[in-house]
Each structure stands twice: as structure tokens, then as C-alpha cells.
């Protein structure tokens, strides 16, 4: 509807980290009340700041949310999703090495899940493509 009025929907540039434990489980967190799509589960990450490189944004976001220091990460995939009220462009990174123990610094629930269990979780719609890509890479 906003496009019909001459306004374009904002596109948010988001970085996402795929963090695995030694058992091959992937870390997800639940969106807190008061946020867009509250209650849904997602892979950790967040919005990129203007002029911020994707890897720098990933390192900053995971330090702020989880208290970890990303030591090595590589691009996994890029995708875009239209939520109707906003568009997001996701830069998804496979975190290969990190220091520290992931913890919920923002009070968000965390879960470690096997990739096969992710499809049963109420994940953000944009994350469905990531789950499919993870299943294919196993």
C-alpha cells in the first residue's frame, strides 16, 4: 500500500551468523516482545550500520547479543525477503571459529538445535531458505 502512495518500503541490511557447537547443532534465539515478529525464532545477528562492512557488522552484532568474539567466518549465502511492511536483505555467514561462550546478553531465549529440528521451529519466514540450504549442505 505504501508503494501505491509513492513511498518505497525500507530495505534493511541484516547480517546473520550460523554458529555450530561441537555436536553440529546450530544456535537460534527468540525475538523479544516489542520487536518486529516478536516470539519467532531466528539465527543471531542484526542490522548493519551505514558504511559498515558485513563481517564487521557480524562481529559487532554477535559480541553485543551473545558476548562472543568471531575469529573466523565465511559467507554462506545472501537472500532477500519481503515481509509486506519491510524488505530485508540478509548476508548469512558461517561462523567457523569464535571465542567465548554464547549467552543471552539481551535476555533472549537461546536454543542449540540439530539442523533437522530447525524446520519444526517457528522461525522467521526469511530464515526458511537458510534452513533449506543447511539441509542441503549436510
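^ C-alpha cells above, recovered residues below v
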Amino acid at each position: 500500500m505504501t508503494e501505491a502512495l509513492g513511498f518505497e518500503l525500507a530495505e534493511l541490511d541484516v547480517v546473520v551468523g550460523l554458529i555450530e557447537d561441537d555436536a553440529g547443532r546450530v544456535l537460534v534465539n527468540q525475538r523479544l516482545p516489542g520487536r518486529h515478529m516478536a516470539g519467532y525464532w531466528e539465527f543471531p545477528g542484526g542490522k548493519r550500520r551505514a558504511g559498515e562492512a558485513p563481517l564487521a557488522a557480524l562481529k559487532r552484532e554477535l559480541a553485543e547479543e551473545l558476548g562472543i568474539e568471531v575469529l573466523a567466518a565465511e559467507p554462506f549465502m545472501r537472500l532477500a525477503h519481503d515481509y509486506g511492511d519491510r524488505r530485508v536483505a540478509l548476508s548469512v555467514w558461517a561462523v567457523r571459529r569464535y571465542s567465548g561462550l554464547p549467552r543471552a546478553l539481551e535476555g533472549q531465549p537461546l536454543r542449540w538445535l540439530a539442523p533437522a529440528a530447525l524446520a519444526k521451529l517457528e522461525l522467521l519466514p526469511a530464515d526458511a531458505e537458510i534452513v533449506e540450504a543447511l539441509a542441503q549442505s549436510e
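The chain has one domain: 11-137.
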